[in-house]
Amino acid sequence: MNLFDTHAHLNDEAYDTDRDEMIQRARLAGITLIVNIGFDLASSRQSIDLAERYDLIYASVGIHPHDAAGTGPGYLEELQELARRPKVVAIGEIGLDYYRDLSPRPVQRKVFLEQLALAKKLQKPIIIHDRDAHGDMMDILRKEKLGPAGGVMHCYSGSWEMARELLAMGFYLSIAGPVTFPNASKLKEVAARAPADRLLIETDAPYLTPMPYRGRRNEPAHIIYTAAEIARVRGMEKENLAQMCAENGRRLFRIA
Ligand code: NI
Asked: Ligand 1 centroid to 89 CA: how many Å?
């Protein structure tokens, strides 16, 4: 197997007692690459530290909409410094979250727009988080346009109609553990219809644990269940699906 987990949070305290063993289990399960995702300045630094310690880990740096209200005046300069470090492959996760509304919506939009501009300036792909904000998200993306470095909608949760518009803009779609849930018919449809060259897979570990471990802590090794379900709905062998998604991830994040 050649599996690429394009979105994980392995600096999370959920792994403080067994991080090395968890990463070893990922290797044994056939995971060859992981992008570890920052959500504020501190976790972005931790993400870079992890990438420097483990050969299979790369990092992204960014401010999550939950943390938008916590940014100080110099945050964008600091983020730019971090983004220039070796093994940083993307700006993310950035976006809008109107489900939990942990930052005021105008602040979420401001910090998102500032990071979109930074990613364009640095020619880095973007990793977008969009939860219950599809209307505003699409309005912003239609206006701002995706830069040539591209981007991905992480843990995609929209309809096939929205997916088609994102694909036309140039986005990749990343599918996580919820595709394994029995009632996830919309997501299974997207997984089945997405073009072969635009599909990524991810765990979002420690969150979004796939069946049959739903409800427990997630980890990259569990990505195999997500790959197996997507392969099933596409009528493919899971090894081929894994290989295809790994190649897509390497192309987007420019990992040789
Ligand atoms: Ni995430």
From this structure: 15
Distance 126 CA to ligand 1 centre (A): 13
> Tokens for 136?
């505003």
Handedness of CA 245, 249, 250, 252 (dihedral sign): positive
Assigned CATH topology for domain 3-253: TIM Barrel (3.20.20)
Splitting the chain (256 residues) into consecutive groups of 10 residues, what average pLDDT does each group show? 97 98 98 98 98 98 97 97 98 97 97 98 98 96 97 96 97 98 97 98 98 96 98 98 98 97
- Give the Cα separation of 218 and 205 in Å (integer): 5
- The reported pTM is 0.97
- Tell how far the Cα of 127 is from the centroid of ligand 1, in angstroms: 9
CA of 11 to the centre of ligand 1 (A): 12
Ion ligand 1 residue ranges (Cβ < 5 Å): 204
